[in-house]
Task: structure prediction
Amino acid sequence: MKETTLCLLVKGNPPEHVLLGLKKTGFGAGKITGFGGKVEPGEMPAAAAIREMEEETGIAVSLEDLVAIGQLTFLFPSEPSWSQSVHVFLSRRWVGVPQEGSEMRPAWYAVDEVPYHQMWRDGPYWLPRFLAGERVVGRFVFDTDNQTVAEADIATWEHRGGEELAL
Result:
């Protein structure tokens, strides 16, 4: 299973706005999502999140400002190569202004106006919880259409240092 990252930038504490982007190419094209991607061999997930954020938006996030907020597992039985384990991070500090690139078109959304109808159908299960300040671990199994969530398990994650995330 692929190991990937997702990084959420938020304004406010509690969050009032979140940076999301329209995926223009590749996996998930046409959907609104967070920023992230594959963890390269030998790369730590936090370093991958920082690299992906810069590649996709031009924004620089430092390791000190990155907070691990969860772990999500997405299983696609009809398309196993899509299955992935996602390390989720959040940051309230960064340098730069989001720039559109070849892969993503970033935009700020008010927390109460997130376009869930344009996201993967699992988004409403976990994104509001992250934006409410929770740390969560979740497991989602998609139906044969690779769009509908057939099973969803989500729980609060009490992070204690290097503790493994699992349901």
In short: Strands lie at 2-11, 17-23, 32-33, 67-75, 84-91, 104-110, 136-142, 149-156. The helical segments are 45-57, 123-131.
